[in-house]
Specification:
The chain is an alpha+beta fold and about 700 residues long. It contains 14 helices and 25 strands.
Amino acid sequence: MAAARDEARLLLPSPLGLLEYDLLEGATFVGPASRGGLEAAPRPFGKAALVVAREGEGHVVRALSGTSIVMVDGAAPTEQLLRDGARLQIGDQTAVFQAAHVAAAAPAAEAPRRAPPRDVERRDAPPPRPRRLPMWPLALVAAGLVLAAVVRGMEHVQNERRAEEVLARQLPEPLTDRATEWPEDVRTLLELDAGARARGDGALRAELDRLRGALDRTRDPAVVAALRARWGEMFDRLASSELVELGDLVDRLAAGGAFARAGEEITRFERRFAGSVPADAVTPLRERIAREAATSLDVLLRDVAPLVTHAPRDAYVRLVEALDRFPVELAPKIAPLLDTARKRLHGSMPPPAPPRGTDGGGVAGPGGDAPRDPEPGDGAAPGDEQPDPDAVALKAWRTAHGDLLAGRYDQAAVSFRRLLDLHRASTLLSLHRPNIETAERWARAGRDGPHVLLHGDATSKRGRVQVTYEFDEHVELADDFSAEAPFATDEPVEVKWEQGLVHIRLGTGLFHRLVYTNDVRIQATVRAEVARDFGLLAVDDGPRYRAILFDLANTRFKLKKGADATVQAGHVLWLIGEGVWAAADADVHGFIKIAERTTSKLENMDRLQLELVRDGLKARGTMQGKTDGVHLEGTVKGDDGSGVGPARVGLFTHGSRMTIESVRIEGQVDPTWWASYLKEQVGLLPTPP
């Protein structure tokens, strides 16, 4: 009788022989086993090289992205249904596919032999003895079945553990470059559920955080590209949602006359969502608010103009309030009338001619109304005159600026703060506030330390700075870093900020603005889009070029000269520059290896933690990622006996691409450089009029 199988199965090679795996799920992942052979699991795992997926009544094989070569019956896998007995080859291991409902051929039964008639049987023959079969084959079969059951149970437990680990990470390892074939884990992340939409911006932000976490855990370029596209789409959706709220808020502020605050909210939105489509859509909103502000100011000036003559105090108060309510761009329209009101108020301008019908003595003439009592300060007597606020503010500014130039930073910081607090209503401050605030910041930097100038999360103690950058705003990159060629190269410098990430490529060095002694540490979280020729560096700030390079997966820098020059492959901690190698040509930078490891296992899109430390004459470079890690350390000393002086630190690419997620720098700022830099920059500040 023929036996039938209800489910298709795979026969998997193992050190113990072929193991059976029933294809019960809609998709089964297959790849090399850690102990040899192949293994299968209902969930994706790190070494999975193919997936056997159910298609109607049959199964098909699809190769996953990876390094293993996958063949089906000696050819590349196609979308055709697998035939019974198909051989699935992964590297040098082969599994066999067996389809469902295949009859197992039973051995043909022998034709029954006719028993001899009883009447012809030999009565004198001895009765037949029962034949005894040997028991050892049955024992071996039983032992084999027990062993197979144990192995299958261990396989099942191992597969379940792998599935739990993948689900806990919320994102599987790289699968395939076709989104429709990704498992449920990835599809869940790529599809914003309806409940999240209903819950509003909070859910959108949570989904964005999940996607950012997913990006941190995958290397597959196709998955990364899709997740980034989804992240950008959701980022735009969140921006669109908040754009509606922004419009409502700006309308309320404009209705209340707070046009300056409305402009600040628009600017804050643009900085937060720079690069998104909604960020570009706020331009019409800004233009509309600007038109409304200009119209409202024209009405205000028309109403206040008559008060300048007859009630200068009221006019002055309303115009000073207008400086706070309207954008700074409109301050020049307010300034002339405010100046007139101030002069009327403080008696520095002659009182207006008496109204028609009066004799100028306070007595009404024929047909005239009696004049009002003079207001305090309105054409006041000489003894009641008050100082001009602008003159007082200008004097205070000049005093503070003099202290700043003289290096009296403590006194200058206090003077600038008092100027900003006590004279905020003056016309002088309305016209020169940005210059005064910049000078006040430099005064605080001279008093408190260079961290005051930084836009990251920064502190400073006795000249030692600690600063962390997450690059949430473009100003962190624009003001605190400079992009330039890190060494002699013809490749262009390319830097781009996008949605909280900094992308550098080709021949780019991204340097921090401060100069540090040999007591400095720079750490960075990066993604190696092209996993070669990138890293961290410290470049001497002196007149000659010398640098320490923590160079990962080097494929470009060579040792020796001419025909003997060879690439030093792997990870290298270099000392390069003038005078480093005594045998270098006069116009060529020399190279000396501080430390090296000649192999590299980095892969494209690896997410890495990088660190470069200068500790006296020692240098250390550390890299840790999912596929590779290295620690290099050595003494910084060239053939000329010297190392690297005070230096700028940063990141570099040399014909490669890197995405920077965060940077942290901790180190002692060079005091000589800081004193010279501070004096130079203070001398360039605008002077009081």
